[in-house]
Amino acid sequence: MTRIITINREFGSGGRELGKRLADALGIPCYDHEIIEMIAKENGFDERYVANVSETSIEAAYPLTIGHRFNVPLMPVMDQPIRVAVAQRKILENFAEKGDCVIVGRCADVILRSFDPLRIFVYASMDSKVARCQARAPEGENLSRKEMERRIHQVEKSRAQFREMYTDSRWGAKESYDLCLNTSHREIKDLIPALVSFTECWFGKEE
Amino acid sequence: MTRIITINREFGSGGRELGKRLADALGIPCYDHEIIEMIAKENGFDERYVANVSETSIEAAYPLTIGHRFNVPLMPVMDQPIRVAVAQRKILENFAEKGDCVIVGRCADVILRSFDPLRIFVYASMDSKVARCQARAPEGENLSRKEMERRIHQVEKSRAQFREMYTDSRWGAKESYDLCLNTSHREIKDLIPALVSFTECWFGKEE
């Protein structure tokens, strides 16, 4: 049985770090930026453009949803955001077919539903998210607490909107996931052994 | 460091079984019915009456909240529901002071906040909850699907209302807990090793 683990996360919750560390501990790949890089490389796009489209744009996913619901074939001449979204879906499916992996973000839990992934959601208190964002901010960036909170809200709102186009299950609602983990003021690395154990319990131990 | 693990759960999610099994695996006591029995025994109440008051009655908790917020001493002559709620708080605190334990329900996560408990919430899909309730229904009880759903909603609403009197943090909202676990169509016993590992990660391993 292929073990696909998807990580969705609040901005500043440490979800990306958690995905990388969990994948390392399990000895399987973690896909995150790699997805963007592949889409860009294989389709001749600029990476920053792909990054923008592939997780924060509503329009990008919209025609995919339509296509699925009404079974309308995609037009031969597609807009760039649609091409990005289609490429993303294909790349996610390719990754999943290759074998066990962790995938961070990008609605992988919904797109790869047929692979029956373990769906993890990572969240934290606003205090903790602001602290994490400030700790990893690039040198010279000195956002106020209020500005940082605004940015967190913006990113999370985009993620929620993007998800809505793929599915009725709400972003961040516990019902959409198998395991929700509160990382407030916790070291991510301290939680990894438990998540490894959780993965083994969920899928059954690898022989 | 005392390891207090509190379990809140949706009705039919298997949360009670999970609490018992986790406590067994950790070799620590699990308090659930025991709380009701002790309150009844020490205060001369009927057990069924205590069971009703101690988790489903709003009035029971109300004067406690008032007492805490405005520091009003409790009246020497108290109504029975208030006496039950006070007894419950004292018994929970006694349990926590005795040492490591799992406590199922009864707002223990809020009442024992100062012990910094690991707060677990257990939930499941309606399909799964109905199936669990039907499997454990007493012989002769043949509720329809609709009646079972109504009962589940009623119990969960009571739990949510009871909680509201102790705290602003919402019952079932992931932000109120450290770990939320979806047990839909899962065997509870299969998840226990992961929860043991999670407990060790959370509190640090016992020497």
Commentary on this structure:
The structure is a homodimer of 207-residue chains. Chain A is of the alpha/beta class. Chain A has one domain: Rossmann fold (3-Layer(aba) Sandwich), CATH 3.40.50. The first copy, chain A, is 57% helix and 11% strand. A 5-stranded parallel β-sheet of chain A has the order 2-3-1-4-5, with helices on both faces. The longest helix of chain A is centred in the last third of the chain and has 22 residues. At the A-B interface, strand 5 and helix 9 of A face strand 5 and helix 9 of B. Strand 5 of chain A pairs antiparallel with strand 5 of chain B, so a sheet runs across the interface.
Helix-strand blueprint:
The structure is a homodimer of 207-residue chains.
Chain A lengths: L3 E6 L5 H12 L3 E2 L1 H11 L3 H10 L1 H13 L9 H19 L2 E4 L3 H4 L6 E6 L2 H10 L9 H22 L12 E4 L5 H16 L4
Parallel strand pairs in A: 1-3, 1-4, 2-3, 4-5
Give the CATH superfamily of chain A: P-loop containing nucleotide triphosphate hydrolases
The radius of gyration over CA of chain A amounts to 17 Å
Number of strands of chain A: 5
- Largest interface (CB < 8 Å): A-B, 23 and 23 residues
Mean pLDDT of chain A: 83
Q: Classify the fold: give the CATH topology of chain A.
A: Rossmann fold
Q: Number of DSSP helices of chain A?
A: 9
Relative strand content of chain A: 5-15%
Oligomer: homodimer
Q: Would you state the CATH class of chain A?
A: Alpha Beta
Helix percent of chain A reads 55-70%
Query: How can the largest sheet of chain A be summarized?
Result: 5 strands, parallel
Distance between the termini of chain A: 11 Å
Instruction: Please trace the helix and strand order of chain A, writing H or E for each element.
Output: EHEHHHHEHEHHEH
**Unreliable residue stretches of chain A:** 57-77
Count of spatially separate domains of chain A: 1
Strand order of the largest sheet of chain A: 2-3-1-4-5
Question: Which geometry of chain A do the CA atoms define?
Answer: globular
CATH architecture of chain A: 3-Layer(aba) Sandwich
